[in-house]
Design goal:
145 residues; mainly beta; 6-stranded antiparallel sheet; 3-stranded antiparallel sheet; 2 helices
Length: 145
């Protein structure tokens, strides 16, 4: 797991930048289908079928906050983001905590943006207005802007 340094970390705890492979590693053993990550936040395997014993074929892995799937990790490496209509501090925190690097959700005048934050630009990097279903592909590009 990649753990961000203390600088710029979430007020609610550590940031764990995640992709499909990292999410899949967390869902092992007794936590094969579901695992609690933090308060009211769960990682869940979706669209699975038993192949052999404990082997599963997974269509997607979802990050759920209060029962709403706010992030979906797909086997092809894509990550789909969704606020589920709840543009709250907690939703933004969970998205920022678990979404792939180098992206973050930023806000200006109550409008959410998906922002690429990497040196040397940091907060002046490219940004896209956030909408439900916005997708980041496996090479770090926003594919449905």
């Amino acid at each position: 797991m990649l753990i961000a340094p203390n600088v710029g970390r979430s007020p609610f705890g550590r940031e764990i930048k995640m992709d499909y492979n990292e999410a899949n590693k967390l869902l092992q053993g007794r936590n094969l289908l579901r695992r609690k990550l933090c308060n009211n936040t769960y990682l869940e395997r979706w669209g699975h079928s038993i192949l052999e014993g404990q082997s599963y074929e997974t269509i997607s892995i979802g990050l759920r906050l209060h029962g709403h799937e706010i992030m979906t990790f797909l086997p092809n490496g894509d990550t789909r983001l969704d606020s589920c209509g709840w543009r709250s501090v907690t939703t933004k925190d969970r998205l920022n905590r678990y979404m792939p690097r180098p992206f973050r959700i930023t806000q200006k005048h109550w409008i959410w943006y998906l922002t690429r934050v990497e040196p040397p630009t940091y907060w002046d990097g490219p940004r896209w207005e956030f909408f439900n279903g916005i997708t980041i592909n496996d090479v770090g590009e926003v594919v449905n802007d």
